[in-house]
Design brief:
mainly alpha, 258 residues, 10 helices, 75% helix
Length: 258
Amino acid sequence: MADHAGEHDKHESAAESLIDKITEKFHGSGSSSSDSDDDAGIKSAASAAKAKIYRLFGREKPVHKVFGGGKPADIFLWRDKKVTGGVLGLATAIWVLFELLEYHLLTLVCHILILGLAVIFLWSNASTFINKSPPKIPELVLPQDIVQGVASALRTEINTAFALLREVASGRDLKRFLAVIAGLWIVSILGSCFNSLTLFYICFVLLHTVPVLYEKYDDKIDAFAEKAEAEFKKQYAVFNVKVLSKIPKGPLKDKKFA
């Protein structure tokens, strides 16, 4: 009888341990699934919040990637301060020479060639008297791949501009048409105030200063741009109701010819 009771207790303990294991497994799987659900919810909420953030011009990539992510992007965004400073210094020197000192391009090129040839010529002849080796004149050759790359990039940009102008002139998007007209009008005003070299220099300086400032303060600029775009859409809606909607349009009916 005692043996029967001991066996009964063993069966009950074994059953209880089995139930405990099943319960722990169930709860463990439930907690892991709930954790995965929580993680998925957090990720979806983060992605939704990221999608709601307004970016200027619909930017989805970092500013460095927008500029190509290579050496030109490093120069525009001041990743290499020496190179960027040298480029701006060279552009400033050219602008000072041609605009302030009223140098002419052909005159400047000729004077630089005269000075360079004279220095090398005198150095080559003086080396025989001072027992030093003559200067090594490098062989300058313009690489073909660089010329083809620049020509291909320029061709692509020109074709893109032509396609944009064709799309604007087609009359499909009134908002873009007004924006392009306003932009060209502003450029014409700037062109009447500055000459071509000064205008090019201003654009060059802005290209090397505005992107780095935008990258540094992109959150504030994007928030301000979002408010400005909302105000522009509001004013455009008012202009559309009061002016554009009142422009008479002729009936577009198919003409039937006998």
